[in-house]
Specification:
Elements lengths: L2 H33 L7 E8 L2 H11 L4 H4 L4 E7 L4 H12 E8 L14 E7 L16 E7 H13 L12 H38 L10 H11 L8 H11 L7 H10 L1 H10 L12 H12 L1 H8 L16
Helix pairs in contact: 1-4, 6-7, 7-9, 10-11, 11-12
């Protein structure tokens, strides 16, 4: 590239940079909105960047571009990092529904198993016709890139980038075997995480089936799936507090000497009236409805059932539950 061409490319990039920033903002907003709709997969992170002018100039020199601004497809780039391999196909659908996809490359399923470097899905896109109006006139024709990876793919990409080995030929010969072994290990780990995700869904469905199909809960181990199913059965109309809250509740059950699901179900049923009375007299202040969620009413029930639980969980405030216990002096 001649000196004059280099200077002109640099001048034009700097002149256009505000447009690239506007496009980056729009891409990130559109992605986050599309990926947060009900039923969407859980996303670890979304990010976007504008290519630096130095990186742009280095690339057009290396690629010998004759029309750099038409040939460059990653002046603006976005990255989506998801949890599981199965999420990649759903994210692909979301990208196609949100933007005009010009081309795509699947480096996960179509790449060579022994190849060096990271694997991911790449999409070259433009804003779609739904992005209409004056605010889009200067950015709607600019191509941009979206990369989609799992967490493990992203870890491998970042670590290998930090080590500065750009291809297999650049790796010291005594490290090649270790690089292949590590790449293979992450490849297998990604699939094992996917299996765990699938088995977790099956476990939750099985727990729901067992709890709802039997009139009386059979003695069963306590875990997130079984407790969630039981609370769904006991409190179908209350706000579900979610997996994290249930996981935090489980260790507390031993404070009330509860070690199996049948015992927990009995405690919830026997103290239901007392728990409702407590809720009426002490409604939760942060809940606009004046009622506890499923975990909140469970903790209230446990505090009424067990003096030890009330003391361990609430300290001196645990004494307020005493008058609601069976046999307590009123």
């Amino acid at each position: 590239m001649t000196s004059s061409a280099w200077k002109e490319s640099r001048r034009k990039f700097i002149e256009n940079e505000p447009q690239y920033e506007d496009l980056k903002t729009e891409i990130l907003y559109s992605l986050q909105k599309a990926l947060s709709t009900p039923g969407s997969v859980k996303i670890h992170s979304t990010s976007a960047r504008v290519k630096s002018v130095d990186s742009f100039l280095e690339k057009i020199e290396r690629k010998s571009y004759t029309s750099p601004f038409e040939q460059s497809e990653d002046l603006v780039g976005a990255r989506i990092v998801c949890l599981f391999l199965a999420d990649l196909s759903q994210i692909k659908q979301t990208i196609h529904e949100t933007f005009d996809v010009i081309s795509e490359e699947n480096k996960v399923d179509e790449g060579e198993a022994s190849s060096f470097g990271y694997m991911s899905h790449h999409y070259i896109c433009r804003l779609s016709s739904t992005h209409s109006g004056p605010r889009y006139d200067t950015i709607k024709k600019i191509k941009f890139e979206i990369q989609v990876r799992t967490i493990l793919m992203d870890a491998w990409a970042n670590i290998s980038h930090y080590l500065a080995y750009k291809n297999e030929e650049s790796i010291p010969s005594d490290l090649v075997r270790d690089f292949h072994a590590l790449s293979g290990l992450l490849y297998v780990a990604d699939r094992q995480f996917q299996n765990l995700s699938r088995d977790s869904v099956h476990s939750a469905a099985q727990a729901e089936k067992e709890v709802f199909e039997s009139e009386e809960i059979q003695s069963s181990s306590i875990n997130t799936d079984t407790v969630r199913a039981l609370l769904h059965r006991e409190y179908p109309d209350r706000h579900s507090s979610g997996e994290k809250s249930i996981a935090e509740l489980i260790p507390e059950l031993s404070w009330a000497n509860i070690h199996d699901l049948r015992n927990l179900a009995r405690v919830l049923q026997e103290n239901r009236a007392a728990a409702l009375e407590y809720e009426e007299q002490h409604p939760p202040g942060r809940n606009a409805s004046g009622t506890f969620g499923d975990v909140g009413i469970t903790r209230t029930t446990l505090a009424i059932h067990s003096e030890e639980y009330a003391e361990l969980k609430y300290g001196n405030h645990g004494k307020r539950y005493a008058k609601f216990r069976k046999g307590a002096d009123n």
